[in-house]
UniProtKB/TrEMBL annotation:
Region (Disordered): 243-266
Name of the featured protein: Zinc transport system ATP-binding protein
SMART domains in UniProt: AAA
Organism: Microlunatus capsulatus
Signal peptide extent: none
Lineage of origin: Bacteria, Bacillati, Actinomycetota, Actinomycetes, Propionibacteriales
Single annotated GO MF: hydrolase activity
A Pfam family reported for this protein in Swiss-Prot or TrEMBL: ABC_tran
């Protein structure tokens, strides 16, 4: 369909890239997520917060189709998850303990982030090689590209997983505790890399225990508690509800700090 001036209709540019409605998940016969609603828009950075076992990783995995929903629905870029095929638009950094392929070279792991862009049995194109090189440079691991993943330190392995997701050149980047085990200097490098992606329109959903340097990028925090969304709002408002100034009477009700179970917002 064309508008009167001939411009193609491309849809609502601010439509959510990710929308979860009433998502419930049971694992081992027990409810883990209970009616979660969540939307992430282009260029938005949403932090998923909450105590241990509140369901953050399960939610991320459910949103990517890695665990089945028992109720509710997920849309990626406006397409229901069961019909979604554009995985080249999605980057995923799992929790490190969940992924450390034995015997793989660093470059191979990062290059696997390009698979959704490539046709089978065709050698990588210049664009694929350039994306891998840029991703390795972004996490400061160019020199280690030929090493076995297993000989890298824990924090370096984490940076490899981040590079794999960056190599995808995603429009939606989902990261599960990406800064766990990463030193402060490289957390700041990661923050700058993400800031550049976000400025270019990439949306980010990031599970965090310690908001740390990434906090400067975060637009909104969503706090899970026992598989439900307990709070959803700007980080500053969550912080105000956790630490209300004693002398003001118009602040919202303080929330129970145990909901965050040690999560550090500031
Ligand atoms: N495969 C599984 N089978 C049974 N229960 C599971 C499974 N995976 C997760 N759970 C349970 O689901 C709950 C939520 O786990 P999840 O890993 O999503 O929490 P989390 O908020 O990411 O925690 P953390 O901050 O410790 O990483 C926990 O009680 C966990 O034991």
């Amino acid at each position: 369909m064309l508008l009167g001036d001939g411009a193609p209709v491309t849809g609502d540019a601010s439509a959510p890239v990710l929308r979860a409605s009433d998502v419930s998940v049971e694992l081992g016969g027990l409810p883990v997520l209970r009616g979660v609603d969540l939307a992430v828009r282009p260029g938005e950075v949403v932090a998923l917060l909450g105590g241990n076992g509140s369901g953050k990783s399960t939610l991320v995995r459910a949103l990517l189709g890695l665990v089945p929903l028992t109720r509710g629905s997920v849309e990626l870029f406006g397409t229901p998850l069961r019909r979604f095929r554009s995985w080249g638009d999605v980057g995923y950094v799992p929790q490190r303990s969940a992924a450390a392929p034995a015997g793989a070279k660093v470059r191979e792991v990062v290059a696997s982030g390009r698979l959704a862009h490539r046709r089978p049995f065709v050698p990588p194109r210049a664009a694929d090689r350039a994306a891998v090189a840029a991703a390795l440079a972004a996490v400061d691991l160019t020199e280690r590209a030929g090493d076995d993943l297993g000989v890298l330190s824990g924090g370096q392995q984490q940076r490899v997983l981040i590079a794999r997701a960056l190599a995808t050149e995603p429009r939606l980047l989902v990261l599960d505790e990406p800064t766990a085990g990463v030193d402060l200097a490289h957390q700041e490098v990661l923050t700058q890399v993400l800031a550049d992606l976000v400025a270019a329109g990439t949306a980010v959903l990031v599970v965090l225990h310690d908001v740390g340097s990434l906090g400067a990028l975060v637009d909104r925090g969503v706090v899970l508690r026992e598989g439900r969304v307990a709070l959803d709002g700007p980080l500053a408002s969550l912080e105000a509800r956790l630490h209300p100034p004693g002398h003001e009477h118009h602040e919202p009700e303080p929330v129970d700090p145990h909901w965050l179970d040690g999560t550090v917002i500031r």
